[in-house]
Amino acid sequence: MPINIPNELPAKDILESEKIFAIEDASAERQHIRPLRIVILNLMPKKIETETQILRLISKSPLQVDIDFMKTESHESKNTSKDHLVKFYTNFAELADNYYDGMIITGAPVELMEFEEVDYWDELCKIMEWSKTHVMSTMHICWGAQAGLYYHYGIQKETLPEKLFGIFPQELVDEYDFLTNGFDEIHYTPHSRHTKIDEKALAAEKRLVVLSRSEKTGSNIIVTKGYRQIFVMGHFEYGVDTLAQEYFRDVKAGKPIHIPENYFPDDDPKQRPILKWRSHANLLYRNWLNYVYQVTPFEIEKIKDMELYHGNKDQHGYARAFKKD
């Protein structure tokens, strides 16, 4: 099934060139099914690039998915045209009455700042609180994952001695977990960050489960037992050349940066990188969308009356949903 995207979104031409079926609003309205509703809070500076990367993964599901793009009012983007933001993005306040099967909160280049110093932190906290009653499952990415772990569980981030930068093998902790079903025992994930989470605090938080990790990166995929919140420390959505662009940008700017690990063949920046995380990226997003499709009520506004019974799963691995008493 296709993804349903806003009319004239720039990502549409790129996706179609990759043989990905995307339809616009008018065509989707003629289909008599309830598609999944996903909202993307895009905090990355290059919004069009991030849109394309995430939509590429969402499109791999057999389900039809409607997409809304959310932005904060408390921050003005300097790297994306105002016309694009006005045309395709909606402020949180205007979406606050909506209910969604899933939400994605992206990373942001603010990790060396204290959370409370980020100009949109207060608004982001309101959005994360809202997601608990208006979204069935929220996926947080990189800094978005660090922010979510801090807001929901008080888990702090720590500054690394040097940037964690490259493609790192991750060990699967539970090969039978629904979200990582189909993963190899070792999978690769791009990382590009200056901070890490407090692993001791994470281990002490019994409401969270680590699905994959490595000694180099620490925990990589973290979830609540009912998948209402998912925290991905790396960037499964990255394209093959994303780290190369970051590397050459920093080299040109004279910033301290090392060659991304396990990325360029023979660590030679003149050679084209090898894309070795795509299949697991597709699996992660397909499993996630399949999960929210299984558990979200058809009348989506009933999310507000539901809670996931943590710690119980049926024989197929689905977390069961129950109405509150």
UniProtKB/TrEMBL annotation:
Record: residues binding substrate: K163, S192, R249
- Determine if Amino-acid biosynthesis is one of this entry's keywords: yes
Q: Which GO terms describe its biological process?
A: L-methionine biosynthetic process from homoserine via O-succinyl-L-homoserine and cystathionine
Please name the catalytic residues of this protein: C142 (acyl-thioester intermediate), H235 (proton acceptor), E237
Show the InterPro entries listed in the entry.
Class_I_gatase-like, HST_MetA, MetA_family
What the entry lists under NCBIfam families is as follows:
metA
Extract the HAMAP family matched here. Answer: MetA_acyltransf
The protein, known as: Homoserine O-acetyltransferase
Where does this protein come from, organism-wise? Answer: Catenisphaera adipataccumulans
The gene for this chain is: metAA
